[in-house]
UniProtKB/TrEMBL annotation:
Catalytic activity: tRNA(Trp) + L-tryptophan + ATP = L-tryptophyl-tRNA(Trp) + AMP + diphosphate + H(+)
Species of the source: Anaerolinea thermolimosa
Assigned protein family: Belongs to the class-I aminoacyl-tRNA synthetase family.
Enzyme class: ligase
Protein name (record): Tryptophan--tRNA ligase
Recorded name of the encoding gene: trpS
Keyword Plastid: no
Pfam families: tRNA-synt_1b (PF00579)
GO terms of molecular function: ATP binding; tryptophan-tRNA ligase activity
Length: 326
């Protein structure tokens, strides 16, 4: 028997990269042992920032493929698409009535979004944390795993639950606990910024070994090391950070030593990383290729997830409507 229910959502960003993998997916997979997990591809959230929805279906499919290949097990966990269970939109509307607007516009995450898209500050953008709250409480999650940057949104969800329950003198909505996950900030191939698709500094999991090596060879190393004969500093090198994750302790120790005395060059160091990364991802890639043989099976998984999510959602909404007196 499990410790409780976990909910987490991610926008449909298509093929996942090493940042997604180390920062989120690995944790999703691990949580399945101890919790009943619901993993949601939040396509409605994506509408707040997308300029076009052209790729949304394909991105959802590719992301689901990566999740399943990485070990999210649809027999254990519920994997589904947010918009397939429209009760979340109903709950969003209801929760928006107990949400002071000023609280939303004061959130640092909102201010950041306004900076990013000043010409498209739509109501959905302001209400993003309310929709996230609706996701969490519709499925009565006990626990929401988030990085520190999203913690304020779960705190917001807790406050919203308290406001709702107080206003309608009920206890139907459950206050979720925050599970602060130690999310490593994976740096991109530029060696500076957070790995991200939009910055095009990412390494996709689903690349071929050859493509992987090609991208890895573009990685920026210690900028002060100009020539092969210069000693390098692994402490400021993103390739070394990657070795710490994907290479053996012996290899890490060897690079740490040899880089500093110019015993190993950046080219060989990156080749070794590419080799180890490819070895690590080989089983994932095999599973992914097998799953991709039958795209309908992926859609079936998402439909089955929808069915199971709907049961919970309908139950919650019946209780919510009843509590309000609708
Ligand atoms: P979302 O907007 O839904 O969070 P992202 O694609 O930005 O979508 O991220 C999906 C998940 O992957 C999030 O949990 C995020 O924290 C994690 N993630 C994305 N990029 C990185 C990165 N460079 N380092 C660590 N974690 C990352
Ligand atoms: Na993000």
């Amino acid at each position: 028997t499990k410790k409780g229910r976990v909910f987490s959502g991610a926008r449909p960003t298509g093929r996942q990269h090493l940042g997604n993998y180390l920062g989120a997916i690995q944790n999703y997979v691990a949580l399945q042992k101890e919790y009943d997990c619901i993993y949601c591809i939040v396509d409605v959230h994506a509408l707040t920032t997308l300029e076009t929805t052209r790729d949304i279906k394909n991105n959802t499919y590719e992301m689901a493929l990566d999740w399943l290949a990485a070990g999210i097990d649809p027999r254990e966990s519920i994997v589904f698409i947010q918009s397939h269970v429209p009760q979340v939109m109903e709950l969003f509307t209801i929760l928006s009535m107990v949400t002071p607007l000023g609280k939303l516009t004061d959130l640092p995450t909102f201010k950041e979004k306004v900076r990013m898209q000043p010409n498209n500050v739509n109501l959905g953008l302001v209400g993003y944390p309310v929709l996230m709250t609706a996701d969490i409480v519709l499925y009565k999650a006990d626990l929401v795993p988030v990085g520190i940057d999203q913690a304020s949104h779960v705190e917001f969800a807790r406050e919203t639950v308290r406001s709702f329950n107080f206003r309608y003198n009920t206890s139907v909505l459950k206050e979720p606990d925050i599970k602060l996950t130690e999310v490593p900030k994976v740096i991109g191939t530029d060696g500076q910024q957070k790995m991200s698709k939009s910055l095009n500094n990412h390494i996709e999991l689903a690349l071929t070994p050859e493509e992987t090596e090609k991208v890895v060879m573009t990685m920026v190393t210690d900028p002060a090391r100009k020539r092969r004969s210069d000693p390098g500093n692994p402490d400021v090198c993103n390739v070394f950070s990657m070795h710490k994750v994907f290479s053996s302790p012996e290899e890490v120790a060897m690079i740490n030593l040899e880089c500093r005395r110019a015993g190993i060059g950046c080219v060989d160091c990156k080749k070794l990383f590419a080799k180890n990364l490819n070895a690590h991802l080989a089983p994932f890639r095999e599973r992914r290729a097998a799953l991709a043989q039958n795209p309908d099976d992926i859609l079936d998984v998402l439909r089955d997830g929808e069915r199971r999510a709907r049961v919970i959602a309908e139950q919650t909404m019946a209780e919510v409507r009843d509590a309000i007196g609708l």
